[in-house]
Amino acid sequence: MNVAHRPDQLEPARRAIAIGTFDGVHRGHVRVLEAALAAGLRPAVVTFDPHPRTILGNRVELLATLERRLELLEQLGFEDALVVRFDAALADLAPEEFAETMLRAAGAEVIAAGDGFRFGHRREGDLDLLERLGFDVRRVALVDNVSSSHIRALLAAGEVEKAAQLLGRPVEVEGTVVLGEQRGGTLGFPTANLAVPPELLVPVLGIYAGAALGRPAAISIGTNPHYGGTERRVEVHVLDYEGDLYGQRLVAELWERLRDEAAFASEQELIDAIADDVRRTRAARRPL
């Protein structure tokens, strides 16, 4: 997929553009994206980074990094993405100016968006305005009970299987593999320790069954209470894998929450618990 940051970086084409932040690319977003794909023109996405709510000083825990969002959009069939930097200047832009300098300049003829999409200075722009400006607007109704905020609430409760139903795919956590304390190797269960981007949502602490690198994986999200830890860590034990992952980006799927993290009476009890986690991970099934 071609990724641009200004309309003039896109090759000229008649485009059907889906517009939105699309955090998580969940099932509600997919309805909007499919409307653009069905229009018969070159499909493209206009999206924003960082999340627009951060301009108001709000902290937003994202369901996916920008890199992952773009990968998911490409998998759906989009050929172009215009990633617009959302800052105070963009937020203050008159809606008509945004439509002309961003959408029209990108070749948009069809615009697909959620029915309540607003844009421009004081969010004064809407889909009615785009229609008056001559765009072919494809309005997409919201999907009941499917929203990024609902998914965040489920993840805060560890409900990864319910969240997967709203996402349309398993919940993911990603990061760069960094050097950890290397206790897992000494216990017989080596782990890849992830440095997770600070803006990315991480589900509630616990032990999860899932997958990484196309293999089953047991994932620990926690503080290592058995060793008196206090800092949250994300550790991925990829079953039956041997290799050096340091410095690599790793995306892990979370299929099922197995248990709370815990401190044990002995190291052998810890090893036995991890072995049971691995056994249950081998038996786990992908939720979708």
Write the layout of secondary structure elements.
Elements (H helix, E strand, L loop, with lengths): L1 E3 L10 E5 L7 H11 L4 E8 L16 H11 L3 E6 L2 H4 L3 H9 L4 E7 L12 H6 L3 E5 L7 H9 L3 H8 L3 E8 L4 H5 L4 E4 L10 E7 L2 E8 L10 E6 L10 E11 L7 H17 L5
Parallel strand pairs: 1-4, 2-3, 2-5, 3-4, 5-6
Antiparallel strand pairs: 7-8, 7-12, 8-11, 9-10, 9-12, 10-11
Helix pairs in contact: 6-7
How would you portray this structure in words?
This protein has helices at 27-37, 66-76, 88-91, 95-103, 127-132, 148-156, 160-167, 183-187, 267-283, and strands at residues 2-4, 15-19, 42-49, 80-85, 108-114, 136-140, 171-178, 192-195, 206-212, 215-222, 233-238, 249-259. The strands form 2 sheets. Strands 1-4-3-2-5-6 form a 6-stranded parallel sheet. It has a 6-stranded antiparallel β-barrel with strand order 7-8-11-10-9-12. It folds into 2 domains: 2-140, Rossmann fold (3-Layer(aba) Sandwich); 170-283, Elongation Factor Tu (Ef-tu), domain 3, CATH 2.40.30.30. With 288 residues, the chain is an alpha/beta fold. The longest helix is centred in the C-terminal third of the chain and has 17 residues, at 267-283. Helix 6 (148-156) packs antiparallel against helix 7 (160-167). The chain has 9 helices and 12 strands. It starts with a strand and ends in a 5-residue tail after the last helix.
